[in-house]
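Chapter review: from sequence to fold.
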Amino acid sequence: MEKVLIIANEFPPMGGAGVQRTSKFVKYLPKFGFEPVVVTKEHVSDLTDETLLDDLPDGLKIYNLKPYDMVNRKGLLRIPLKFIGTRILSPDAEYFWYYFNRKKVRDIIEKEKIKCIYTTSFPYSSHLMGLYLKELMPELVWIADFRDEWTNNPYHLDSFFRRVKLKTERAKELSITNKCDFLIANTPFMLENFVKDTPSLGARSTYIPNGYDEEDFQGLLNQRNGGDKFVITYTGSLYGRRNLDEFLDGLKILLDNNKVDKNKLEIRIVGNVYQSVLDSYAQKYGLEGIIKSYGYLPHRESIQMLFNSDILLLVIGKGKGSRNFYTGKIFEYIRVDRPILAIVPPDGAAAQVINETNTGKVVDPEDIKGVSEILEYYYNNWEENKKIHNPNWDEIKTYSRQSQAEKFANIIKSQLEKDRLGR
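The token string follows.
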């Protein structure tokens, strides 16, 4: 099989949503005629999920390079190094991982006789690795995959430190988008922005959304476990615009008007969220004992938590650029067969998925009254034991991880063929 070098700074056993896309590509690429070879960093993150290793192909070759870590250090230097890595270094805290390992990756390419490399961000330093290799070895086919936007990323637009670095990072981004042979974006809205900034991408780019892996659902129990509680579950992180404010403001309207019995309510938070954040929410809204934190769980356990629920909460937040992206969790949400309360931009990528799959109700983050009305609708139907969920399963199946990997493999094939023909 033709080898493809996967350059992914974030990779199992590191946990979290960011590793899923790449690890699933790696899992399924051999089915479509390619042998992945992975370059990543030695695992140093506190966020660990060893179960993700079980998903990888037998005999997978992984090169774990020295991490030069700025974020997960211990001791007195932890705070200043993390500040430098996340606030000062450009483009991100993994710059030194790229810079000091780039010649090793060049040697790996020669050793493994690689013709095609794939880089994925975040972190964006992975693309700097691709840029270095492409300039050094122009014959390489380079596919750059942006799981999130870079200079148009809404969370970066909110950051003072990111805005300070915007001009230099824009130049780096344009170098990457101009030099890569093919670009993959995560959503059609992201792709539009990339093509707008680099018009030549129009003929050498596409979007491949994230998805769900049917094998992750095998053996799980499709049953709620809340007893006499109306269980609302949120999985993932909470930071910046992505918070529970609009959801809890909408819930407060119902509680204040006695339209929801607080004693019948349970809000489950699954993910790497500070307990102090959840405690402050509980205190502010009088929800002590109702908001329950489960912390970070192994991937399949987090999916089981979705099955155990009555409705699922999806939050993106408001502000410039928020319409452009999904969150990775949305695809497992739609597969689980539970109604989704999606507090997301109604003209955005996430809303499009929810509407096309008929898996929930979308409400603008600005519309607190609308949030309360949808919550009341779901709560009343739960009380009356009415089935109101009728997903479009044909549409849902288009988001399977195997289907996404096939699209990726077809891109590799077409790019290698162009290279053979001299482009």
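Two observations follow directly from the output. The domain at 2-211+400-420 is CATH 3.40.50.2000 (Rossmann fold). The mean pLDDT is 89.
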